[in-house]
């Protein structure tokens, strides 16, 4: 296939390298012209994914070229703008996947809903989600992810075409469930990072992950996603990876907060996007309007707004009234 990838951060670059190594012809675009020049000159993404050479069949472009599939791998905050650029370039009906995880701020839309708004004539809109650290995919280590779309015939065919011995793709028609799991697990990764950084122990980590999944399930149900999807790669799979894996940037933010860093300091030190930070506010807004109880997300919102301190989090969560499971 001819695959176009928007966003030359860690994830866009890893996907581009992976698909190029598996015989697809790939173009990679970044909004940052100087970064594009550096990529073309050195053939290595020094800023976001060092140590991996860009294969010859991967072109770093300034203008979008024709494509059979476009993948938007920018942060969610840049998804709408990137989709608009595709639409303006005449690629608005090319099959498209969002590879970012989160809710759009202000609108509260999930990635596939943003794409549908910007590209109303596109019949093939989906998301790529699931447990997948960029570093490991770039290394060509085995990985399994979810491709989800309301257009199930298309997404199933796409999963078959893209499937290879390194990346196994599972098709799913429940795009809401897949996107909710992918978005909110980042919030739980920040929470477990904090707990681990404060040496609360493994019991606490697993309690947060499990009760985190309970609150993700409540939100998912209220938004119309299926609970079965949360048992899969884009739900439980990505929750486990991100809450326990040392490569997770969201988990790292939690660890830095536990060290006493402020949120801006933690994000500067990270140098990458941590979507959970932006997801917290939107999830709280939706949870309130839908009447969904999300105590872990709510406590993080209080922390980010300076209404509580990192050392008080465990006590606040543990002091809540007993509930049934
Ligand atoms: N890294 C990973 O392992 C995985 C990440 N994801 C998801 O992929 C998405 C991207 O993450 P990741 O690549 O890791 O992030 P990074 O922080 O590594 O890179 C972000 C990239 O987005 C670019 N960008 C920022 N603003 C814009 C904009 N307005 N228009 C176009 N591009 C922009 C940045 O460019 P510049 O800095 O030059 O401005 C940079 O190239 C996130 O939603 C993340 O959750 C999903 C699975 C795995
Ligand atoms: O989504 C991811 C892996 O599936 C990446 O998580 P982080 O953004 O926390 O690194």
TrEMBL record:
NAD(+) binds at residues 7-12, 134, 249. Its EC number is 1.1.1.94. Residues 174-313 form the Glycerol-3-phosphate dehydrogenase NAD-dependent C-terminal domain. Keywords: Cytoplasm, Lipid biosynthesis, Lipid metabolism, NAD, NADP, Nucleotide-binding, Oxidoreductase, Phospholipid biosynthesis, Phospholipid metabolism. One of its GO terms (biological process) is glycerol-3-phosphate catabolic process. GO terms for cellular component: cytosol. The active site is at residue 185. Sn-glycerol 3-phosphate binds at residues 101, 130, 132, 185, 238, 248-250. NADPH binds at residues 11, 31, 48, 101, 134, 249, 273, 275. It catalyses: sn-glycerol 3-phosphate + NADP(+) = dihydroxyacetone phosphate + NADPH + H(+); sn-glycerol 3-phosphate + NAD(+) = dihydroxyacetone phosphate + NADH + H(+). It is found in: Cytoplasm. It holds the Pfam family NAD_Gly3P_dh_N. InterPro entries: 6-PGluconate_DH-like_C_sf, 6PGD_dom2, G3P_DH_NAD-dep, G3P_DH_NAD-dep_C, G3P_DH_NAD-dep_N, NAD(P)-bd_dom_sf. Substrate binds at residues 101, 249-250. One of its GO terms (molecular function) is NAD binding. Residues 3-151 form the Glycerol-3-phosphate dehydrogenase NAD-dependent N-terminal domain. It comes from the Bacteria. Belongs to the NAD-dependent glycerol-3-phosphate dehydrogenase family. Catalyzes the reduction of the glycolytic intermediate dihydroxyacetone phosphate (DHAP) to sn-glycerol 3-phosphate (G3P), the key precursor for phospholipid synthesis. This is Glycerol-3-phosphate dehydrogenase [NAD(P)+]. It comes from Snodgrassella communis. The lineage of its organism: Bacteria, Pseudomonadati, Pseudomonadota, Betaproteobacteria, Neisseriales. The gene is gpsA.
